[in-house]
Structure formats: C-alpha cells, structure tokens
C-alpha cells in the first residue's frame, strides 16, 4: 500500500512538473504518438491477418480438411469426396464445403462483377452464423440438380446496392442471367471464409456449374464425371468440419485418413494418389502454403517500425537530457536536502511514464485513422480487400506495452544522468549549464550514433527494394508486355454457353484487329502474369505411366504467338485446321522440351495428359521461353493447347499495339465488347505490362514502406544531431568567444563544430553499414538478381545521410561563427 501511495505521489509531482512546460510536453507527446503510432498501425494489420480468429462460433472446435498428393499438401476436394467424407461417423457434427466464386449481378439496368462463395447447405449452421434478416442457407437448399435458386446477400451489398431495403428478402435478383430468390442477409460482422475478401453473396454449391468457382482448383483430365458436382477428380472446394464433443484433432485426422484410404480403393482413377491432411482453423490465416510468408514479413515490418521507435526514443532522451540541464539546480537542491537518488530517479521516470501514456493514447487514434486511410485506398485488384482493423484488446495491449517500453528506453538514461550532478558546482552555477557535463555529452553522442546507424539501415533497405524493383522491370520477360492490351471476359457469368462464347470471341477478335493502331489480335484462356494458376499432368512416355510431370498450361488461338510476340522456334504454330474432331495438338516451350525430352527437336513427338489411356497430343511446335508467373522465375515449362479443340466461356482478348503503350487500345477493346453486348461486366482492361506490375506490387509496397520509414528516420536523426550540436555550441560559447578574441577566424569555428558533429555521423555510418551488410541478405529474394551488397544502394544511403548531416551540423556552426565574442565572454 505504501508503494502505491509513493507511486501516486510521484505521478502527481511529475504532472505538476510537466504542466510547467506545455511546449515540451506537446512536442514530446506528438513525437511519441508518431513513433508508437506507426508500430500500432503495423500491428493492427498483423493482428487482422495473423492473430484475429475467424468470425464464427467457437472456432477452436473447427478443423480444416485438405486433400493432398505429391507437390500439393493442402489442396481442395471434390463434391463427391465431400459427400462421402460427410458420412464418416464419429468425427464431425457438421462438415461443410466452400469456394470463392465470381458472379455477375444484374440489377436496375446495371451489371457488376462480385466475389462471393459457393457453399454447401449446412455452411451457416455449422459455423454458428445466423442471418441478420430472413434466414441463412439450409441443407434443403443444396440437394444437387434441381436445388432451388436462392442466395444470401452480404450486409455490405444489401446496404450499398439495395439501399438497405427491408422488403428485399423474398424477392429475386439476377446472377449470371438466372433469377435467385434472396432468402436472407448475413450479419455485418461476418465477411465469409475467403481470407482478406468480404464475400458479397452465398449461393448453394449445387449451382456451381452456373456460378464460376475460383481460387485453388485441380482437375484430373480422365475423370469420368460430366459436371462439377459429379466429377470426383474436379477438386474445387475447401472443407471444414466442427468436431463432435470429446473428439480431438488427432483422432479426427486418423479417422478421416481411414475414410480417404477407402476412397482410394473404391475410386482409383481419381483418388489413387490422393491422401488427406487436417489442421485446426485457428492455425490457418490465408492458406498453409502461404501462411509462412506472413511471419517473416510481419517481423520485417515490425522490425522496421521498431527502428523508427528507437530513433524517436533517442530524440526524446536527448530532449530530456537538455531539460535536465535546465533543472540542475532544482535536482541539486533536492539531493542536498536529503532526497535519495533512487527516489529522484523514480520521480523523473514518472514524468517519462506520463509522457508515454499521453503519446500512447494519441498513438491509438493515429493507428485507427491511418488504418482506415489505408483501407480506403483501393489496391489494384478486382475486389475490395476486407480486414478488421478494429482497436481490440490485443492492439490496445500491444500499444500499452510499446509505450511502457519506450518510457524505459527514453527515460531511464536521462534520469540516471540527471540524478548525479556535482552538488557544489550545480548550486553555484544555478540553472546555467557549462561545458563540464562531459558525461552527459558523451551519452548524447551515443544516442546520436544510434540514430544515425538505424537511419542508415532503413535507408539501405528501402534503397535495395527500389533497386530490386528497377532490376525486375529491366528483366527481359520474352516479349513486350506494355505493347499488348488485355481484356478478360468471363462470358459464363452472362449466360453464354461454349458455342455462343466462341462466336462472340471470334467476332470480337475480328473487330479488335481492325481497330486503329492494332497489328494483330488473339484469344487465350490464360495470359502471362495472370493470377490464376493452371496446371496439368503430362506423361511424356506411354511406357512409363507413373512418370507424371505437372506443367503450366494454357489454351490459345492461332494468332496468339504473333500478338504476344513469343516466336515459334521449331515447327509451326496453330492453324485453322486445329479444331475439335482432329488430332489433339500442342505447342511446348523450350524449357518443357528440354526438361521432358532433353532436346528441342520434339516436333512430332506425342504425350498423354492425365493418363496413358487418354488420346495422345502431338507436338507441332516449340515456342521461345518467356515469363509465365513472375518476373524473377527461371524458365518455366509451359504447354499450350489449341483453343479451338475445347469449349470455353472464359478467355482474354489480346491485341498488339503499334505504339509502345497499349492502354488506349485496351479502352477501345472495352468499348467494342460493349457494343456487342451492352450488359457485359468485367474487370478494367489493361496491358500485360500492368499485370506484370501487379505481380511486383508486394516489392513496390515494401520499397515504399521501408523507404518512407528510412526518410522519416533520417529526418528524426538529423533533428537529434542538430539538437546535440546546438547544445554543444551553447555550452562552448565562452570557449568560442575566447578563440575569436585571440584571432580565430569564423571558418575555424565552423570547422571545429563540423568536425565534432561529423565524427558522430561517421561512427554511426560505419555501424549502420556493417549492420545493413549483415541483414540485407534477408531481402535477397526480392532483389531479382541484384547483389544484396549493392554499391549504389549502400553508396546512395551514405551520400544522402552525409549531405543531410552536414546541413544539420552547419546551421549551429554558422550561428556560433557569427556570435559576438564580447557578448559570449560576458555570458560565460
């Protein structure tokens, strides 16, 4: 109890002391709010992505169930497999399937492409989510063919598109040209199970052949099923189950593995090599294959803003040291009257704690506003990112912890230094400081060295990523991406069947080829740098059916290679004779030919897709290698099939522009498509160069964030350096006055001040360069062949720092050189 009273008394004394210095408190609190605020902002994103549980009832009881095979440990499952596993007794009280879906909503004369979910009937019931209005989907809504067309809308879509109309439930809306009855509206707090994306609708899985499933999809080519509901080898849905009371995740894993073993035996064509893996949903944030990225990224970002906080604390420590110099007489009097040093340190730390509390409170407001501002910025994606950046207990606790840590960092050293003055000297000199505080000055010097070193590390990290981004854009991707316009068209979302879609694309391609500035036009199912991933299993030798190879795949028309600018180096391209009913043909990339056959002379060879009992494909040509997924990849094997030999309702219209930038052509293509069908809704047209830039977006954001932190750190360090040099100059005014009086020139004074200041800078620079050299290798994966010890990035950071530091040193040096020596001597 006595300690509590002492603490309360220390805080009251600290509060009275701070009230006498409102300007100091304001500057210190705002500086702290910035330093703590950037840490809290980054943590809110880490919390939303990595730490916040799913918005469902009792998520700790829910287990994710994945299909697995060689090269795919956490894959999707098919609808028939889901039905079989749902019947496994003694494991789940409910098992659900769900997939991201893309559909076109037609309402009030306007079409809009939306992202939602295809879900099984017990989805809401198993997750424990009730509708905010109407009802949720029920098992009776998902009974296969003939299921009623019903939909649950998200709360956000209901508000934005339908004006929160309470009478909407029971009425119909049109998705992909079909009428769906709105049976309910989801609660505002439930965004769905698509990570980072707010689902706009939920439609029963029975309608998967009307609404396009998206995301991670794998198909077995020789699957006997005809529809997505019947195809056991068409794996498009993620599974999650709520465990029965008393069933552990380990028991569930063993029982479901036994169920999958039975499916392997009963369905060898599609399931022979397919296993099963489970994981609690509380351990999953995005997907097990990508979740490992968030840990290192979170550490890098939190480390970067932590370095900014160190600079802020160093600045505040210097401010407190300066303030303590003005209070030397007060502190000496307290010590002379018998105050213990530990008590005095506690009182000084109490002031730091109050400053940290004010700064931490402002930091929460800063983090909230910054988070909302970032969310308001629409990323270059065809959907709206959804993250809950609310100030929950974890964010508040983290901010409080950082504020307490900051109070110790910036408050302890000044408190220890200020509480041990020479009493007689302090009492004689009053409040005026002198050059005798060598210990304080050395402490201030050390703080400046830390600030400079941290600034160097952040500047180099940002410079490396900027250089890496430039290096990536300079890489030869195998064609001219900005010269090729791209218009993706999901015609299945508008009720087109295969035949109607083919006619539409052929007509549109002819009109696009006739546009001004267009030299050729083509159609392809998948284009370079497309976010959709298509793979197929290739058997190059029929005598070895077990030697399967997973290859990137696309379907293209005869004009594709000319339009994109990827030449055929062996054989021929596709022609008008490569149509359905003729022998299946393919074009392989150089990398694929070398990997599977060890030679480029593969024209005429055949391979099987999915199994040796399928009709073989004959290779008619070899195309030059080009980048398929990312700029930094090694030559990736790619197989291209003839588009006319398969049905399709989704494809990209491509057009090659005679100009260096095809953006204008892309806009003209959009208008041409709308002239053919005014009800079309699609993503904004762009160029293949824009898709390439999108693939580099994480590096671009990293460069922006680290570069911004580096510049801010440099400014803060420069302010700290300026403060130290200004303090040094003020404490040496008498010395400078004497030097001028005996004949020293102003340039001599400036040189002395610059020498002492730049010594600190050079020490910090050396330390920072050494730390950056040891840590830059962690960014090597984002540098696209650039050396992690890049001389331009390191040299540029050093030159920038020295230039700014010279300015910060010169200002107080020039003021000292202009000082009247008589005035300085009188004040000494």
Low-pLDDT runs: 423-441
Number of helices: 23
Q: For the CA atoms, what is the radius of gyration?
A: 34 Å
Count of strand segments = 25
Mean pLDDT: 82
Profile the largest sheet: 6 strands, mixed, barrel
The fraction of residues in strands falls at 15-25%
Helix content: 40-55%
Structural class: alpha+beta
Report how far apart the termini are. Answer: 49 Å
User: Reading side by side through the largest sheet, how are the strands ordered?
Assistant: 3-4-9-6-8-7
Shape: globular
Concise summary:
The chain is an alpha+beta fold. The protein has 23 helices and 25 strands.
Characterise this structure:
This protein is α+β, with helices and mostly antiparallel strands. Helix content is 49%, strand content 17%. The chain contains 23 helices and 25 strands. The strands form four sheets. It has a six-stranded mixed β-barrel with strand order 3-4-9-6-8-7. Strands 17-18-23-20-22-21 form a six-stranded mixed β-barrel.
Set down the secondary structure blueprint:
Elements: H1 2-19, H2 22-51, E1 62-69, E2 72-75, H3 79-86, E3 92-107, E4 110-119, H4 123-127, E5 133-134, E6 150-153, H5 155-162, E7 172-175, E8 178-185, E9 201-204, E10 212-214, E11 218-219, E12 234-235, E13 238-243, H6 249-266, H7 268-271, E14 275-280, H8 288-326, H9 328-336, H10 341-376, H11 393-418, H12 423-429, H13 438-474, E15 484-490, H14 498-513, E16 518-524, E17 535-539, E18 549-556, H15 560-564, E19 568-571, E20 585-589, H16 590-597, E21 606-609, E22 617-623, E23 638-642, E24 650-657, H17 663-676, E25 686-687, H18 688-695, H19 697-731, H20 733-741, H21 746-775, H22 791-817, H23 821-827
Parallel strand pairs: 4-9, 6-8, 18-23, 20-22
Antiparallel strand pairs: 1-2, 1-13, 1-14, 3-4, 3-7, 3-10, 3-13, 5-8, 6-9, 7-8, 11-12, 15-24, 15-25, 16-24, 17-18, 17-21, 19-22, 20-23, 21-22
């Amino acid at each position: 109890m006595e300690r509590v009273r002492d603490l309360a008394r220390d805080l009251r004394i600290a509060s009275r002391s701070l009230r006498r210095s409102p300007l100091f408190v304001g500057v210190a609190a705002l500086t702290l709010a910035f330093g703590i605020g950037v840490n809290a902002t980054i943590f809110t994103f880490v919390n939303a992505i990595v730490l916040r549980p799913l918005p469902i009832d009792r998520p700790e009881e829910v287990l994710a169930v994945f299909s697995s095979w060689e090269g795919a440990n956490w894959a999707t499952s098919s609808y028939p497999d889901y039905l079989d596993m749902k019947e496994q007794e003694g494991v789940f009280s409910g098992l659900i399937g769900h997939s991201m879906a893309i559909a076109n909503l037609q309402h009030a004369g306007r079409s809009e492409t939306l992202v939602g979910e295809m879900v099984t009937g017990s989805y809401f019931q198993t997750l424990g989510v009730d509708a905010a209005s109407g009802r949720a989907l029920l098992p009776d809504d998902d009974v296969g063919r003939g299921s009623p067309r019903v939909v649950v809308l998200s709360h956000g879509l209901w508000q934005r598109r339908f004006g929160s109309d309470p009478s909407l439930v029971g009425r119909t809306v049109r998705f992909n040209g079909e009428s769906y009855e709105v049976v309910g509206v989801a609660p505002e707090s439930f965004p769905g199970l698509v990570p980072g994306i707010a689902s706009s609708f939920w439609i029963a899985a029975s309608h998967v052949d009307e609404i396009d499933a998206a995301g991670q999809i794998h198909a077995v080519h020789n699957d006997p099923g005809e529809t997505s509901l019947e195809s056991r080898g068409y794996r498009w849905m993620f599974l999650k189950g709520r465990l029965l009371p008393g069933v552990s995740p380990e028991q569930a894993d063993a029982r479901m593995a036994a169920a999958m073993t039975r499916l392997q035996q009963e369905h060898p064509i599609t399931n022979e090599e397919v296993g099963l893996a489970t994981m609690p949903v509380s351990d999953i944030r995005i997907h097990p294959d990508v979740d490992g990225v968030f840990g290192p990224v979170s550490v890098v970002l939190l480390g970067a803003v932590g370095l900014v906080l160190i600079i802020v604390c160093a600045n505040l420590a210097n401010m407190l040291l300066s303030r303590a110099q003005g209070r030397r007489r007060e502190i000496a009097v307290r010590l002379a009257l018998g105050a213990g040093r530990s008590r005095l340190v506690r009182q000084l730390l109490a002031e730091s704690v109050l400053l940290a509390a004010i700064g931490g409170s402002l930091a929460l407001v800063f983090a909230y506003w910054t988070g909302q501002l970032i969310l308001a910025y629409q990323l270059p994606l065809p959907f709206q990112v959804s993250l809950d950046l609310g100030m929950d207990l974890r964010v508040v606790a983290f901010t409080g912890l950082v504020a307490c840590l900051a109070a110790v960092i910036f408050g302890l050293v000044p408190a220890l230094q200020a509480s041990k003055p020479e009493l007689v000297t302090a009492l004689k000199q009053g409040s005026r400081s002198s050059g005798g505080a060598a210990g304080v000055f050395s402490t201030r010097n050390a703080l400046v060295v830390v600030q400079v070193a941290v600034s160097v590390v952040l500047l180099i990290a940002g410079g490396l990523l900027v250089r890496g981004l430039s290096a990536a854009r300079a890489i030869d991707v195998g064609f001219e991406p900005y010269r090729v316009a791209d218009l993706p068209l999901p015609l299945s979302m508008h009720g087109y069947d295969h035949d109607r879609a083919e006619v539409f694309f052929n007509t549109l391609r002819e009109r696009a080829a006739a546009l001004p500035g267009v030299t050729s036009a083509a159609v392809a199912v998948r284009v370079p740098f497309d976010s959709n991933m298509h793979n197929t299993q290739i058997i190059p030798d029929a005598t070895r059916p077990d030697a399967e190879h997973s290859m990137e795949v696309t379907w293209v028309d005869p004009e594709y290679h000319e339009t994109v600018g990827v030449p055929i180096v062996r054989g021929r391209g596709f022609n008008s004779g490569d149509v359905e009913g003729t022998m299946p043909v393919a074009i392989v990339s150089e990398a694929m030919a070398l990997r599977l056959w060890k030679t480029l002379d593969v024209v005429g060879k055949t391979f099987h897709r999915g199994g040796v009992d399928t009709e073989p494909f004959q290779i008619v040509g070899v195309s030059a290698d080009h980048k398929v997924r990312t700029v930094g990849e090694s030559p990736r094997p790619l197989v291209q099939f003839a588009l006319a030999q398969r049905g399709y309702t989704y494809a990209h219209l491509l057009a090659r522009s005679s100009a260096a930038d095809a953006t204008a052509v892309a806009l003209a293509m959009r208008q041409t498509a709308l002239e053919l069908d005014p009800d079309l809704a699609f993503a904004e047209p762009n160029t293949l160069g824009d898709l390439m830039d999108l693939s580099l977006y994480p590096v671009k954001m990293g460069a922006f964030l680290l570069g911004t932190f580096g510049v801010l750190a440099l400014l803060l360090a420069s302010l700290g350096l300026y403060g130290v040099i200004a303090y040094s100059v003020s404490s040496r005014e008498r010395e400078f006055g004497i030097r001028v009086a005996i004949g020293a020139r102003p340039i001599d004074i400036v040189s002395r001040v610059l020498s002492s200041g730049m010594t600190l800078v050079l020490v910090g620079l050396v330390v920072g360069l050494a730390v950056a050299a040891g840590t830059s290798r962690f960014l090597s994966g984002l540098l696209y062949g650039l050396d992690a010890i890049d001389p331009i990035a390191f040299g540029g950071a050093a030159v920038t720092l020295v230039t700014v530091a010279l300015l910060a040193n010169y200002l107080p040096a020039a003021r000292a050189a202009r000082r009247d020596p008589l005035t300085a001597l009188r004040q000494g």
